[in-house]
Amino acid sequence: MDNSNTKSPSLLGAVRSASWSIGLTQEELARVESTVIERRFAPGSLVCRKGEPVEYWYGVIEGLLKLSSDAESGKTASLTGVPPGGWFGEGSLLKSEIRRYDGVALRDSRMALMPRQTFLWLLDHSISFNRYLLTQLNERLGQFICLLESERLLDTDARVARCVATLFNPVLYPGLSRKLAVSQEELGYLTGISRQRVNRSLKILQDAGYLSVAYGGITILNLDGLRKLGS
Question: Deepest in the core among 74, 110, 163, 204, taking most CB within 10 A?
Answer without folding.
Answer: 163
